[in-house]
Amino acid sequence: MIRKSVALVILAILGLLVMGGLAELPLPAERMSESVTSRHILSEGVSDTGAVNLVTAVLFDYRGFDTLGEATVIFAAAAGVVLLFFRHDLPTSRLGLSSLAKRSIMVLAPFVFVTGLYIVMFGHVTPGGGFQGGVVWATLTILLCIVYGTAFEWRFINTRTKTLLESLGAIAFILLGLVGIYRGDFFLSNIAAGFRAGVPGELTSGGAIPLLNLAIGLKVAAGLALIFYNMVKKDVG
Amino acid sequence: MHESMLTGILLVFLLVTAVFAVATRYVLHAVLSLSIFGILLSVLFVMYQAPDVAMAEAVVGAGLMTALFVVTISKTTNRDDSA
Fold first, then answer.
1. Mean pLDDT over the full length of chain B
2. CB count, 10 Å around CB of A3?
3. In this predicted model, what pLDDT tens digit does every residue of A121-169 receive, in sequence order?
4. Do B51 and A127 touch (CB under 8 A)?
5. Residue A226 near chain B (CB below 8 Å)
6. Domain extents in chain A
7. Mean of the pLDDT values across residues A172-191?
8. Residue from A139, A142, A95, A130 nearest A206 by CA
9. Least packed by Cβ within 10 Å: which of A65, A154, B38, B49?
10. How far apart are the C-alpha atoms of A31 and A46, rounded to whole Å?
11. Test mutation, B46, B48, B55, chain A, max A CBs within 10 A
């Protein structure tokens, strides 16, 4: 009881401190007019990168190296989970849900897949990008895994294919980055490395950004599906 | 007026789901409440004009994390427990 009340008091003090700190922060609108970076990105971003969606322009052009780091984190997580759960035995569940669920998921699956593809490929035009679309793809494999049982998933896209896709995405991202160095510019440089900016707003605009998005999408989808599949396949009970 | 009211309602429900997720005894209830939290948060992100973040939050927070958590719970609890 005493410990609980002491914890509550400490929590209240910490909360007040955080509130005080937050109150001192300047509003985003105020900082926007001061910051050189945000003004530059807002005014020159489209002509710099050819991407209309400036969030994607920042993620895959100005801060492309950070995105490589994020992708590496997912790669490490997937590798760790596979290492923990690795086993040679085959899937356990063949049952899945009722045939009604199976039928309706087969009607739904192509639409989910195309939605993911759209989010990935149009990441530089509309909201979205490789991460979001990749997670949509991963969710599709999870749905199939739940509805059809893991045996279906195993036959459909087995673990080896997923590993291949994930590594392929990572290698493609790094190779696209190395093109910049080959052309005599920085790692992951986009328009300066000779990728065509195109007409802003079209699918082929944005230089290497759609390709980078596709690489990241494949990588994220395969990585997350690998994580889920490896957690699910070994039935302890 | 309407928009600020909607924001307020969403914020209150965010608080309710977050507190429920921490306070509930059953892990599964906490996971489901966290998934509702994710959906509400993504709606809020859309209202604050951050559609990219909203998409990521909806897909990851409400979709993927729920699946992973439910699998983890079903692997780590006893069959007899109704947790």
1. 87
2. 7
3. 998 888 888 889 999 999 998 888 888 877 776 677 777 888 888 889 9
4. yes
5. no
6. 35-233
7. 85
8. A130
9. B49
10. 21
11. B55
